[in-house]
Amino acid sequence: MYDTLMQMGRWFGYRPNYLDLTRIYTTSELVDWFGHIADAATELREEFDQMALTGATPRQYGLKVQSHDVLLVTSQLKMHAAKSLLLSFSGRVVQTVALALSESSRQANLDALRRLALATSSLPLITSGHGIVAPDADMAMTLRSGVSHVFISDFLNSFVTHSAAYRVNGPLISEFIDRMADDGELITWSLVMAGKASADPYEILPGVTLGPVTRKGEKIGDRFSIGTLLDPKDELFGMSEAQWRAAQVETARRQQVKRKVDGVKDVEGDSPIPDMPSGAAARFIRGSGAQGVVAERERGLLIVYAIEVPDEPMSPLLGFVLSFPESTRAVKVEYKVNNVMWEADYATA
Prior knowledge:
Layout: H1 2-14, H2 28-54, E1 64-66, E2 83-86, E3 93-95, E4 98-100, H3 103-119, E5 125-126, E6 139-148, H4 149-158, H5 170-182, E7 188-196, E8 202-205, E9 208-210, E10 217-220, E11 223-226, H6 241-261, H7 279-288, E12 299-307, E13 317-323, E14 334-337, H8 339-346
Parallel strand pairs: 7-12
Antiparallel strand pairs: 1-14, 2-14, 3-13, 4-11, 5-6, 6-7, 8-9, 10-11, 12-13
Helix pairs in contact: 3-4, 4-5, 6-7
C-alpha cells in the first residue's frame, strides 16, 4: 500500500545523529514503486492547488489519486468510498523522466524522431517570437507548426518508454489524442526540438540537429532517472502575443488566490504581472481562451529533447514532453477517485 510503503521509508529521513548508521538495502522494484508514489503525490498536490484556486473544499471538490497495477493506494477498508475512474490528460503536462538506456530503445526512439522530423519538414518553421527565443542564449530551438495529430500518434506509438514510466504510456496517450481529434480537439500540434547550442549535436536528418541538454539524474539499472525533463519556459513555445499577455494576467490571478489560501498577510490589491507566465496558466489560456483571445483546444504541444548521459558515447537518449490545453474531454487513464468526484460528475451519467 502507498501509505505503508512511505512509512517504511520515512524513519531514515529525519532522525538526528543516525546518518552515520543508516544503510538502506533495497530492490529495483521498490525503487520503481517509490518513484510511482512520488509521481502520484506530486499530482495530488496539483489537485489541492487547483481546489484552492476554485475556492472549494474537499467535500465539494472531487480529488483523485493515480492508481497502480500492483500497489494499493491504501487499505481496502479506507478506500470504501473510492472508485476506479478513467480521467483526462487535458490541462496536464506529461513528460518522460524514466529513460530506457538500452541501445535498442535508443535506436527505436531516434528512428521515431527521424520519421516525425521528415514528415514535418515541409511545414512552417518558426524561429522567433514569444517562447521561441529563450532567455538562455545557449539554447537552440526550432518549432514546426500545423503538425497533424496522425504524425504525433505515430511518434508516440513508436517511442519506447521504460516500464518504470507509469504515467507515460505512448500507445495510451496516442489513443487519447486520436479520440480527442475525433471530437475536433488536438487536431494540429506544435513540434519543438529543444537543444543546447554549445553541445555536440546529434544529426536527426541532414541539416536537422539536436544538441543534448543536461538534466540531473542517475543510472538505476537499465534506465536513466531524472527529476524533471521540462524547462518551464519551454512550455510557452508558440504562444501568440495575446495568449502570452492573457497567461501573464492569469498567472498573477492564481498567485493572488494562492497567497490568500496560504494565509499570507497584506495581500490586498493585485499581484504584480510576472514577466513569464506559468505553464498551468498557459495551458488554461490555450484551452479556455480569455477576453480577446480565442481558445485553441485543437492545438497541442510536443517538445523533444536529447539528454546528456555522463560517460555515454552511445546513440542519443531522447525524451519528450506533451503539453495539453485545458479541455473537458475524458480519456482512459485509471485513477482512484473519492465519492465526491464520482457522485458529482459520473453517478448520473
